[in-house]
Specification:
mainly beta, Lipocalin, nine-stranded antiparallel β-sheet, eight-stranded antiparallel β-barrel, 2 domains
Amino acid sequence: MNGYGFAMVLTLSLAACGGGGLSGTYTPKGGNGFFEKMTFTSGDKVEITFMGQVREIAYETDGKTLKIINPNAGETQVFTLDSAGCFDGGGLIGTYCKADGIAAALSGRGLTGTWEAKAPGGSFRLTFAEDNKVKLTVADDGGTPESQEASYAVSGNQVTVSAPGGVPIQLTRNGQALVGNFGGVTITFSQR
């Protein structure tokens, strides 16, 4: 790994901490990030996985700021804790969320109830039930709502809704919302 790559690894490890004594694994939000994952193993160490290789790096935090300092390159990368409990390192680095927390939030009780979204010309509703079942309701503005039974699967922060004979709908957990792209339009579902 070159000096720049190592500096980036150090930067991400600081961002993922947000306070001493972090634990667990943080993965890229929406699957897009510079690193594959960051695993906090002790009060001041994090293992960064980059291109299949793992490096253990020290980190330090200050309030909602995580700083990773690469003494070899003389660089400091700053991450900030966002409202969803994820660390944002900016553009190239990306945002990292606690993987097991997201998976737990999306399994079982995390996907119950009704989630709604507005779109140009209509609205969507997802009503999650037991046994990975979901009712998908679509309504054009002023039209009669149409519903269809579907199933859903959760993998990390990704939710896939599959209706018989339809194209699967890919949603990403983003804080307290489920976000998807429908025909080039971003739709955000909020729980009601």
